[in-house]
Amino acid sequence: MKFSRLTAAAAASVLLLTGLIGCAPPEKNNAEEQTESGVNARAATSAEDFGGMDGLVEAAKKEGELNVIALPPTWANYAAIIKAFEDKYGIKVNSGQPDASSKEEINAANQQRGRSTAPDVFDLGQSVALANTAMFAPYKVAVWDDIPMAYKEREGAWVNDYGGYMSIGFDSAKVPPVTSVNDLLKPEYNGKVALNGDPTQAGAAFSGVLMVALSQGGSADDIAPGVEFFRKLNEAGNFLPVDPTPATIESGQTPVVIDWNYLNAVETKKLPSWQVLVPPDHAVAGYYYQAINKDAPHPAAARLWQEFLFSDEGQNLYAAGGVRPVRADNMMADGSLDQAVAASIPVIDGPVTVPSPEQTDKATAYLSDNWAEAIG
């Protein structure tokens, strides 16, 4: 699990993105060189700048590699997505720090700017993404017009790629069935309730606190009741300060996990007693933000990665991971969304809360001032 994208994935890093900061000068890369099509890949804002998709593919293959970060294999089907991209284009994907948080993605890009190991692309929670748009390179994929305006920045600095609902996963063999958020305060859950990440840094944890806030009378404009609930949870001894991973779930260390429904759902395939609840009266949905690092060491490959993620093939691979791809509605309408995976995308009847950027900024500021004290 990615700690909310945040911290918690069980997979070893192929590319080490830490410990590389020192006094050595930055490595030279060819990002400033023109491709064979005559365009500076770092300045390209669409495939047309390469002369079309064939030119982009050629430029990306010349670079030969792509650095991704914070993409756990079990998160949104990224293991299959990475393999499909490598198989399709013959480009090696270096997957670094799969357990990194959104904030740690940005830190890695800043710390390794100018090095060949810097991340080429980002997959971020809303609050971190919107706070760092100056680091993104505008780019519009070929299917740009098929992506609803609400889910993209007008000039292409970022695009929502997939989303889901906040949920409570629990091991019914170790704890009583969870029927509501308030159940978590009961003595039966002592030392058993984990949150996927730090809500001041991780998108999943942020949305988890928001879901709890709604259950306590709060709103997207008032996350304080959610923080107060976690204070009570901690005082009762029920809050477990452990970042959940597939390993902690399967070992029984974290028998209750507040996380995205698609991550909790993955565990049901490995642990038959694992169940997932999306509180129907307090549903919180959220999309992740896909963006290109403006200082990407492999700028053409970064742009080809975007094209792949938003293509029919990439969107169907997302859907196969239990997430809702951003083009889902249009693909359902034109029949390009695989019917088998479409049926697995959860549908929530009733109101769904999706915080606006302004609401997210306000809530993030409140969490920065109050979260540590509440669970300390």
From TrEMBL:
The keyword Signal applies. Keywords: Signal. GO terms for molecular function: thiamine binding; thiamine pyrophosphate binding. Residues 95-118 are annotated as: Disordered. GO terms for biological process: thiamine transport. It comes from Mycolicibacterium tusciae. This is ABC transporter substrate-binding protein. Residues 1-24 form the signal peptide. GO terms for cellular component: outer membrane-bounded periplasmic space. SUPFAM superfamilies: Periplasmic binding protein-like II.
